[in-house]
Design brief:
Blueprint (H helix, E strand, L loop, with lengths): L2 H12 L9 H16 L10 H14 L3 H13 L8
Helix pairs in contact: 3-4
Length: 87
């Protein structure tokens, strides 16, 4: 953990804080903000071997999803540890 995370963890472990109940409007505001953060996308450019892209497009066509969606799913699954990279 970095210094800020350690400080926050110590604060939370200390229990010297008060939990405030949120009203429905506040809950909805924070729920919306969290959802936007979790679903925010960033467009990037990436260089792939042409033959790899052809294979991905073919596999995407077989499954009926756009190839960009398939590439995004592969990256996401790697990022969250669902798949491992073998080199």
């Amino acid at each position: 953990m970095d210094e800020e995370e350690v400080e926050l963890a110590e604060f939370l472990d200390g229990g010297d804080y008060e939990v405030k109940e949120l009203n429905a409007k506040e809950k909805e505001k924070y729920k919306k903000a969290a959802l936007e953060t979790m679903t925010a996308k960033k467009q990037i450019s990436i260089n792939l071997l042409e033959r790899d892209l052809k294979i991905i497009k073919s596999k995407a066509m077989e499954t009926g999803i756009p190839y960009q969606t398939m590439i995004g799913a592969l990256v996401h699954n790697y990022a969250v540890g669902k798949i491992k990279l073998e080199v």
